[in-house]
Amino acid sequence: MKTAMRGKLAMGESATEFCRAKPHDNALYNEALAGATAALDGAKAKYGEWLAGMGTEHISTKSIDHFRDWIRTKFRKVIRVAEAVSRKEPGFDLRFRLPKERTADLKLIADLRAMVTAGEAHQDAFLRYGLAEGFFASMRQEIDRFEDLLAERKAGQAGHVGAAVVLEQLLDEMLGHIDDLDALNTVRFADDPEQMAAWKSASRKPSRRKAKAAAARAAARAANA
User: Fold this and answer.
1) Which pLDDT tens digit goes with each residue over 68-87?
2) pLDDT digits (tens, 9 = 90+) for 160-186
3) What is the distance between the alpha carbons of residues 139 and 113, in angstroms, rounded to a whole number?
4) DSSP secondary structure string, the chain?
5) What is the C-alpha separation between 202 and 188, in angstroms, rounded?
6) What values do phi and psi take at 11, rounded to 5?
7) Contact in structure between 12 and 46 (CB atoms under 8 Å)
8) Where are the domains of the chain?
9) Which residue from 74, 90, 135, 192 puts its CA 20 to 30 A from 34's CA?
10) 199-224 mean pLDDT
11) Comparing C-alpha atoms, which of 98, 104, 105 is closest to residue 148?
């Protein structure tokens, strides 16, 4: 999807640049060029929003995955202490069960909050076993941060999905205007093979295969720079 969008944007840039460099005293031509330029500008802005949303989702997802691993490590020692405490308070450890790795995010939060609440209620017992005094308060803050990360990921998803819909609409609008310019230039340059070839090159819609190859070449150049 990203490669296809970039290809259409690049074609829109080259086609509109060509037309601006070859002014034409034709109302339909100038109207189509203005429409293509406006749609292209809007599409570039939405492409930036789409990339930002994708980046936010990606970063948040990585942070969420890291948190899940980290929090499970933190609560393992709490559970170990809870097992020791339960030998004096039967049934106590039932509130301290490590959630399964694939537990849904919201259930994980609920389970962790339940453990924190239970731990705070028996903090003296945990302190006697060497757990830091502020442990449960810090865990509560970390769980709050986890909820924030989930909200950030959701916002990122909504942002890039919404931007992608508008972006596709703008690209379609741009391509429609370029089709109008193509019809006008086909007549305009009918007797000028050189200009016709230049226009066809500037307005050629990229194939998916060529767009991917171009993106790969650009990535390779960036890596070797």
Assistant:
1) 888 888 888 788 888 887 77
2) 888 889 999 999 999 999 999 999 999
3) 9
4) -HHHHHHHHHHHHHHHHHHHHS----HHHHHHHHHHHHHHHHHHHHHHHHHHHHHHHHHHHHHHHHHHHHHHHHHHHHHHHHHHHHTTSTTGGGG--PPPTT--HHHHHHHHHHHHHHHHHTHHHHHHTT--TTHHHHHHHHHHHHHHHHHHHHHHHHHHHHHHHHHHHHHHHHHHHHHHHHHHHHHHTTT-HHHHHHHHHHTPPPPHHHHHHHHHHHHHHHHH-
5) 15
6) -65, -40
7) no
8) 2-219
9) 192
10) 65
11) 105
What does pTM read for this prediction?
Answer: 0.66
Amino acid code (one letter) for 6:
R
* Token duo for residue 180: 């109008």
Count of positions (residues) in the chain = 225
Q: Are 179 and 15 in contact (CB under 8 A)?
A: no
